[in-house]
Amino acid sequence: MAEAQGMVQKTGAHLWITHVLMITGVLVIFFPIWLAFVASTVTQPEIVSPPMPILPGDHFWENYKAALFSGVNVPVATMLINSLLMAIGIAIGKIIISLLSAFAIVYFRFPGRTFFFWLIFITLMLPVEVRIVPTYEVVASFGLLNSYSGLILPLIASATATFLFRQFFMTIPDELAEAARVDGAKPMRFFVDIVLPMSRTNIAALFVILFIYGWNQYLWPLLITTDPEMNTIVMGIKQMFPSGDDVAEWPVIMATSILAMIPPVIVVISMQKLFVRGLMDSEK
Asked: What is the C-alpha separation between 23 and 219, in angstroms, rounded?
């Protein structure tokens, strides 16, 4: 009995330590975000005059209105729309191409299918930065500069998503494909009616990851966009920092930074259950 009580007490102490460490980690991560939010609600003199306040000020609407509808070269609202369209386009495009590629590799028998899979997989060693010059030349030759097509199309191929979908499709029992074939279902009917519903959680998990990937893109949009109206929010934040003797409008910059975090946070929170379930299913 004494040993059992000791084990329970040890378990309870271990639980408390774990929670304390977890809460401490959350506070450490959240504190800079809180400071950014506070800085977005005060005036410029309050930020540059130490000590910086740690409680929100009364200029919230003024600073956020200036960020959304003024900006430096273009309003932040326009840049948010550009980033949103780009991130959604990249995520959906990657998922569609990866689903079809993995389905063809797993369920179709054709010469060299293993070779083509490993050829796709090898592209993981070629990030955008390595192939950015030839990709730019192709995009420019097609007249896609300063366009949503130019922002999205070169980034929609994903070897990682193809690999993950292939691994998941290989866990689907062959009896399902045989039963569909006996019932006279064509390959795309089997794909739409059986494979896609079973892949729902995996698609959700990948959508969250790929959306954030597209949202955080900086180098590629910077290269192919010269029109300020096509700027993304990540580019906009960089352009707000002063050069030379210019003075930074820190309340507006911080307000823009907070606004840039809202869409990814909404996507993660709204798809949290499917995201976690998709990761767990992928591990299985």
From this structure: 35
Q: What is the pTM of this model?
A: 0.84
Q: Interhelix angle for 200-215 vs 159-169, to 10°?
A: 170
Cα gap 28→82, rounded to integer Å = 31
Residue 164 has pLDDT above 70, yes or no: yes
CATH 1.10.357.10 fits 72-283, yes or no: no
Record the tokens describing residue 271, joined without a space: 């798809």
Query: Rounded to whole angstroms, what are the CA distances from 157 to 68, 101, 147?
Result: 32, 10, 18
Tens of pLDDT, residues 79-106: 999 999 999 999 999 999 999 988 988 8
51 — alpha (psi -120 to 50), left (phi > 0) or beta? beta
**CA distances from residue 34 to 28, 37, 39, 151, 216 in whole angstroms, order as listed:** 10, 5, 9, 32, 21
Q: How far apart are the first and last CA of the chain?
A: 39
What does the block give as tokens for 230? 């096509």
- pLDDT tens column, 257-281: 999 999 999 998 888 777 666 556 5
59 to each of 33, 52, 76, 159, how far by Cα in Å?
18, 15, 18, 46
CATH 1.10.3720.10-classified regions of the chain: 72-283
219, 129 in Cβ contact below 8 A? yes
Of 103, 251, 119, the C-alpha closest to 187 is 103
What's the CA dihedral at 56, 60, 66, 67 to 10 degrees?
60
